[in-house]
Amino acid sequence: MPKRDKPPFQYRSNASLRRGAPSREPRAYVLIVCEGEKTEPNYFKALREDKKLKTTEVKVIGEECGSHPRDVVDFAVKEKRRQERKGIPYNQVWCVFDRDEHSKIHEAFDRAKAHGIEIAFSNPCFELWFLLHFINYSSAHIERDEVDRQLRNSHIPGYEVSMQVYDLLIELQQNAIRNAERLRIHHESVNPGEYPNPYTSVDRLVAFLNYLEQP
Predict the structure, then answer these.
(1) How many Cβ atoms from other residues are within 10 Å of residue 3's Cβ?
(2) Whole-angstrom Cα distance, residue 75 to residue 190?
(3) How far is Cα 50 from Cα 71, in angstroms, rounded to an integer?
(4) Count of domains in the chain?
(5) Could you tell me if 8 and 109 are in contact, meaning their C-beta atoms sit under 8 angstroms apart?
(6) Is residue 123 within 8 Å of residue 129, measured between CB atoms?
(7) Which of 9, 41, 72, 144 could link 124 by a cystine bridge, Cβ 3.0 to 4.6 Å?
């Protein structure tokens, strides 16, 4: 019997997402490795700028990482080891990727867990995180084309891949976080053993970066 992909909601985080006032000593040193070449890096670079985090503290990498989640994790592992050899280890390393039609995606989850790497995973696509800013909570299955259609026609006129949208979303961020948290709770109870749709854990990474914001 072929090995079943492990559900992302069983990938438990090592990240601390405390909402209290952050301690800035020692300073955070974070790596974010993204599957997408434009959309995901653009978003996290804008968030980094908004939170006044230095590029030396939060490094965002996209286009050089490969197109399969396993490649993204492999790149992150190599970068993590490289920094450790230099004596400047990252406090946290995150990989950002989505379900898409990738085969053997469980290998990316397994390798990340083995190396202490966090994952921000979305199904069907990263843009679901954008859509959750605007809509009321719904656990109804949705495809990538429909996510893009709703963004383009109802919420962000003319939306297209690589469009800078962070400034349009920031005021609605708490709604997206609530929706993402509710989806995880829902799927953990009703969809064991499957990759749930819709699903995202991008909110966990966003919450972590918010926590690092300069006081």
Answers:
(1) 8
(2) 34
(3) 29
(4) 1
(5) yes
(6) no
(7) 144
Q: Look up the CATH number of the domain holding residue 160.
A: 3.40.50
State pTM to two decimals. 0.87
Length of the chain: 215
Q: Domain for residue 8, yes or no?
A: no
Unique residue bearing structure tokens 């070449």: 37
- Smallest CA-to-CA distance from 161 within 65, 43, 64 is with 43
- Does residue 19 form part of some domain? no
What does each of the 215 residues of the chain score in pLDDT, given as a tens digit?
444 444 444 444 444 444 444 444 446 899 999 998 899 999 999 999 999 999 999 999 998 887 799 999 999 999 999 999 999 999 999 999 998 777 889 999 999 999 999 999 999 999 999 999 999 999 999 999 999 999 999 999 999 988 999 999 999 999 999 999 999 999 888 866 568 999 999 999 999 999 998 66
Q: What is the edge-to-edge ordering of all strands in the sheet holding 30-34?
A: 58-61, 30-34, 92-98, 118-123, 199-200
CA distances from 137 to 148, 180, 182 (A): 17, 9, 8
